[in-house]
Amino acid sequence: MKDKQDIQQxxxxxxxxxxxxxxxxxxxxxxxxxxEQVSGDLLAVNQGTLYxxxxxxxxxxxxxxxxxxxxxxxxxxFYDLTKAGRKQLQAETRNWEQTAAIVxxxxxxxxxxxx
Length: 115
Prior knowledge:
By secondary structure, the protein is α+β, with helices and mostly antiparallel strands. It has helices at about 10-25, 30-40, 45-60, 85-110, and strands spanning about 5, 25, 45, 65-70, 75-80.
């Protein structure tokens, strides 16, 4: 059994927005499960972190929500990406790609590179 890691600070928003972009409207549990699946079940999504983030994203206008029925016919709040959310996703993606490229430079850095 693999040990699950907590999601690094600042990455959950990007993962939520990308999940909604790819999968369309999802309820909170569905979003959490998709993130865990995409990570190969290496990440654990803390519900106590996810729902406040969804509320924050809704207040910012990045997502909308409405009540509906889940697959097992239970009442659930479904979240959907807005136009502003798509712009936020694009900006966050660019930022993370740039950050990853910078960190990759340090992994490849050798002493002889300073000469």
